[in-house]
């Protein structure tokens, strides 16, 4: 078969190698502490599960309006107004099967390749499509989605500033130009857990307005923060008309497998993305949308409990790592932290880092083989000297993971 350029450009998820290894070890009976997962380890709140069952029993099993049932779009609009200060109407929303699909439709609607130049005479891709700027470390799927839209990626590093955006604004200014189509902001962020300050976001706003850039504000972790109030980019002066707010139910309400998310944006984008939506997924699952209304309206206590549990684990993990001489940038949100890794650790001194291996991939592969602790190499997110730890796991397992990493010389 002759495959399309755009799929051949995309690599399989770099996290796959680790999860395949973890599964293979587990299948052999090995007890792996899996800190590579990007999902809360809590059950979906019971009232949400009940609402889903009731909706099924009530016969909500057919297609819905493509952009989502009005009750859910209204509930989302109310949430965005009351909790985030964002003003969107029902017409500004598409309900999608997960935040990922919301992002995919947004990239596909806004990012173009350059006609006739996407394949050079030699048959290799020239990668000259619309420019999308990412803030590194950036969640793995952004780059893949840009490539699938035939766009090109420019990256601005925040790792050198402990993942804070404000000190990286000069670099961002040097990168964003009139040629930039799109900028992606993810706060609280995966994989670093940083929550960007109002001043940093104002810096983003100034650049976006100056260069007429659309900004995706991926706020999927906004319910999981520790003592800080995340600012929604679309609330800043001049941003409502150029912000695409992405959110979803996976992380806030522990509903990863239900697949529910949304795009909130000016109607002109909703009209375009709505075409992709109707010709691809048709609509999000009917009874899941009904459960989503319950999740948005009646889960404040459950959401607060989960966020509190994540905060306790974060604190414990930061302290445990500090006890072993490892300082991490303390995350203010999400359930990830970036662990700095280098060749100096005892385990890697003995182990050859193979040709083409970065230190983080060698560290992560070693950690899973020797200590049976699964983490994700930072290079998957554009920052090779880190491993991402997800602390969506019990305190006991987190302690066990640190003990094993110390014992095997990885910390
Ligand atoms: C930053 C970020 N955005 C979006 C998503 C998409 O989540 P979902 O499709 O489950 O809503 C994820 C999932 O890991 C994520 O980490």
Written description of the protein model:
The protein has helices at 5-8, 15-27, 46-57, 70-84, 99-110, 140-148, 169-175, 198-211, 267-280, 286-297, 300-323, 346-350, 359-371, 395-407, and strands spanning 33-34, 93-96, 131-136, 152-157, 180-186, 214-218, 243-248, 261-264, 336-340, 373-374, 376-377, 386-390. It is α/β, with parallel strands linked by helices. It has two domains: 5-43 and 301-407, Aspartate Aminotransferase, domain 1 (Alpha-Beta Complex), CATH 3.90.1150; 62-298, Type I PLP-dependent aspartate aminotransferase-like (Major domain) (Aspartate Aminotransferase, domain 2, 3-Layer(aba) Sandwich), CATH 3.40.640. The structure holds pyridoxal-5'-phosphate (PLP). The site of pyridoxal-5'-phosphate has 13 residues, from helix 5.
Strands across the major sheet, in which order? 2-8-7-6-5-3-4
The separation of the N and C termini measures 47 Å
> In sequence order, what are the helices and strands, one letter per element?
HHEHHEHEHEHEHEEEHHHEHHEEEH
Low-confidence stretches: 116-126
Q: Tell me the number of strands.
A: 12
Radius of gyration: 21 Å
Which fold name is given in CATH as the topology of the largest domain?
Aspartate Aminotransferase, domain 2
Q: Number of helical segments?
A: 14
Q: Report strand %.
A: 5-15%
Return the average pLDDT rounded to an integer: 93
Instruction: Characterize the biggest β-sheet.
Output: 7 strands, mixed
Provide the structure class.
alpha/beta
Ligand inventory reads:
pyridoxal-5'-phosphate
Task: Provide the CATH architecture of the largest domain.
Answer: 3-Layer(aba) Sandwich
CATH class of the largest domain: Alpha Beta
Question: Quick one: CATH superfamily of the largest domain?
Answer: Type I PLP-dependent aspartate aminotransferase-like (Major domain)
Helix content estimate: 40-55%
Shape: globular
Provide the domain count.
2
């Amino acid at each position: 078969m002759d495959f399309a350029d755009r799929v051949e450009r995309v690599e399989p998820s770099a996290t796959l190698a680790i999860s395949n290894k973890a599964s293979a070890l587990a299948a052999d009976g090995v007890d792996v502490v899996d800190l590579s997962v990007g999902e809360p380890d809590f059950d979906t709140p019971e009232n949400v599960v009940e609402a889903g069952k009731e909706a099924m029993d009530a016969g909500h099993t057919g297609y819905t309006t493509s952009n989502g049932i009005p009750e859910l779009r209204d509930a989302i609009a109310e949430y965005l107004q009351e909790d985030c200060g964002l003003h969107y109407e029902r017409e500004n929303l598409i309900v999608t099967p997960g935040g990922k699909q919301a992002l995919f439709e947004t990239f596909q609607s806004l990012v173009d390749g350059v006609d006739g130049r996407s394949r050079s005479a030699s048959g290799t891709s020239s990668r000259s499509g619309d420019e999308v700027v990412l803030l590194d470390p950036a969640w793995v799927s952004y780059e893949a989605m840009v490539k699938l839209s035939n766009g090109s990626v420019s990256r601005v590093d925040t790792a050198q500033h402990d993942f804070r955006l404000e000190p990286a604004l000069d670099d961002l200014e040097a990168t964003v130009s009139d040629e930039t189509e799109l900028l992606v902001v993810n706060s609280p962020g995966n994989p670093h857990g940083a929550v960007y300050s109002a001043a940093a976001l104002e810096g983003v706003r100034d650049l976006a307005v100056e260069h007429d850039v659309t900004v995706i504000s991926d706020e999927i972790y906004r319910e999981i923060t520790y003592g800080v109030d995340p600012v929604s980019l679309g609330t800043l002066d001049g941003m409502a008309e150029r912000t695409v707010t992405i959110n979803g139910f996976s992380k806030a309400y522990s509903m990863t497998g239900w697949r529910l998310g949304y795009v909130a944006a000016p109607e002109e984008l909703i009209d375009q993305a709505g075409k992709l939506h109707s010709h691809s997924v048709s609509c999000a699952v009917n009874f899941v949308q009904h459960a989503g209304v319950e999740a948005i309206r009646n889960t404040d206590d459950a959401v607060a409990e989960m966020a509190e549990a994540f905060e306790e684990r974060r604190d414990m993990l930061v302290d445990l790592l500090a006890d072993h001489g490892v300082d991490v940038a303390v995350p203010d949100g999400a359930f990830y932290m970036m662990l700095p890794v280098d060749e100096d650790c005892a385990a890697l001194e003995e182990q050859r880092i193979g040709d083409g291996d970065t230190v983080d991939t060698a560290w992560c592969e070693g950690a899973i083989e020797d200590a049976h602790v699964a983490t994700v190499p930072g290079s998957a997110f554009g920052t090779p000297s880190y491993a991402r730890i997800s602390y969506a796991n019990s305190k006991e397992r987190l302690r066990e993971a640190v003990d094993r990493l110390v014992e095997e010389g990885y910390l």
